[in-house]
Amino acid sequence: MEFVWFRNDLRIHDHEPLYKALEGDQPVIGGYLFSSRAHEWSEAGFRRQSAKRSRFEVESLLALHQQLSQLGVPLLLREGSAMEEWRTWLNEHSITRIHAYTHPGSEERDDEQALKEIAEEFGIQVIFYEGDTLLHPDDLPFEMEKLPGGFTSFRKKIEDKDILPRKPLPPPYEQTPFMLEEQEKSGKELMSRFRELEASIYVSGGEQEALRRLYDYYYGSKHVLTYKERRNGMLAMDDSSKFSPWLANGSLSPRTAYWNLKQFEEEHRANESTYWLWFELLWRDYFHFLLRQKGDKLFLQSGVQGMEVEWEKDITVFDKWRDGETGYPLIDAAMKQLSATGYMSNRARQNVASFLTKNLGIDWRWGAAWFESQLIDYDPASNYGNWQYVAGVGTDMRKFRAFHVIKQGERYDEKGEFVRYFLPALKHVPNEYIYAPFRMPEDVRKQANVQLGIDYPFPIVNLQESLDKRQEVYKQATFKK
Ligand SMILES: Cc1cc2nc3c(=O)[nH]c(=O)nc-3n(C[C@H](O)[C@H](O)[C@H](O)COP(=O)(O)OP(=O)(O)OC[C@H]3O[C@@H](n4cnc5c(N)ncnc54)[C@H](O)[C@@H]3O)c2cc1C
């Protein structure tokens, strides 16, 4: 019997392990391990995986379970430590070969190691495939150890050599339905998990949902043609593709996203916006390759630069950031959006990360951990890579840079629609003050019906003073050899 281990690749199309397993003449079964790490607690006092992320995971698995049934493939589920659960599976089923994608995260690699060890004990072959990125690692024009230290030179190397993603695989074969008692049990378990999770998220999980969004964004609404102009928007669904949650858990293969984009360009039009979507997908690849190159350094406080900066660990201040109570509307609206929906735009992510690290001076890993818990598109490489980048300890380290969170709001949400949506207390504040309500004169404040300190907080820091202070701290940074 052939076994396909599903991980962050919850789809049936363009799925090499599944394709290869079904190509043979042995019956195929699939399996998924719910990670016990989801229940762990972070240093800053919250669960590593929120109900929102769990809900997206379960929805994606329900869809996968159904798709696999149509191929005649049962899906087994287990929860616990990889080593023990593998032992149970291998004892209960006569598995001869295991197929799985490899994933670059440190914990994911630990799980792979656990599988390798146990498979050796049982004398079973394990085949790992590469498939989390748009470009196949073997097609890169350099060795992984020579990955450029900055995104721009990475992108140029790819574009100069005209390296393209490989084409997606043909649809998978079907097999004569292969029934296992556990199959029905898995369906019931997923339904009961689903019912328990009352979380609000902005998209639904599963490959069909991903493809629906893809076709609508390209062919239906054709919003992809205005991506470059709109992508800094923070509120509307169509400000950007919103492919990220499905890419993160593999319901959508990046190659499918790319080759459909190419087809759209051929049938309709190519413009700067369609190019920019490829550009952003390359950013994702860059962080995934960086994780392969740097390993654990992507998760260390000193970052890939080995830069030792002094960080604050003030839980009261952190909680104000986390709960959207900083007195800076751009930050507060964005943090409330994250808690309410499991999403935040790229523009807002950059600002809240900059504010936490460059104004509040809080350990960037606390912020990254909160994102990990809340984002339904959480992806270890993109999350920790971007956090390091904004915190100034990652790639492309330039001189101390920070976002001015008032000016950014005024620039990217001129009419204050984003803020008013998530901070109803500021509904009647005139545009002029919407990003700095503390500047409102008394008469305007009265008219807007906002009492600072009661309806909306006073700023927790002075922007310029806190930046100056942090800059001094960064100047004292030392570098690990
Ligand atoms: C501090 C911080 C943390 C982040 N954490 C994550 C994360 O955990 N998971 C995640 O998928 N993205 C993360 N991002 C990147 C980016 O914000 C999201 O990918 C994007 O907002 C998702 O929305 P979208 O799909 O509409 O993106 P679009 O703008 O439509 O972009 C298309 C795709 O390109 C990729 N992409 C775009 N920008 C980036 C980027 N800066 N880095 C890597 N890939 C990118 C994503 O896969 C995205 O789905 C983070 C960014 C920051 C600044």
Automatic annotation (TrEMBL):
Signal peptide per UniProt: none
GO MF: deoxyribodipyrimidine photo-lyase activity; DNA binding; FAD binding
GO biological process, one term: photoreactive repair
Cofactor note: Binds 1 FAD per subunit.
Residues that coordinate or bind FAD: 227, 240-244, 280-287, 377-379
Repeat keyword on record: no
Domain Photolyase/cryptochrome alpha/beta: 1-134
Site positions per UniProt: Electron transfer via tryptophanyl radical: 311, 364, 387
Entry keyword set: Chromophore, FAD, Flavoprotein
InterPro entries: Cry_DASH, Crypto/Photolyase_FAD-like_sf, Crypto/Photolyase_N_sf, Cryptochr/Photolyase_FAD-bd, Cryptochrome/DNA_photolyase_1, DNA_photolyase_N, Rossmann-like_a/b/a_fold
Cofactors required: FAD; (6R)-5,10-methylene-5,6,7,8-tetrahydrofolate
Entries under Pfam families matching the protein: DNA_photolyase, FAD_binding_7
Its biological purpose: May have a photoreceptor function.
Family as reported in the entry's similarity comment: Belongs to the DNA photolyase class-1 family.
Protein name as it appears in the record: Cryptochrome DASH
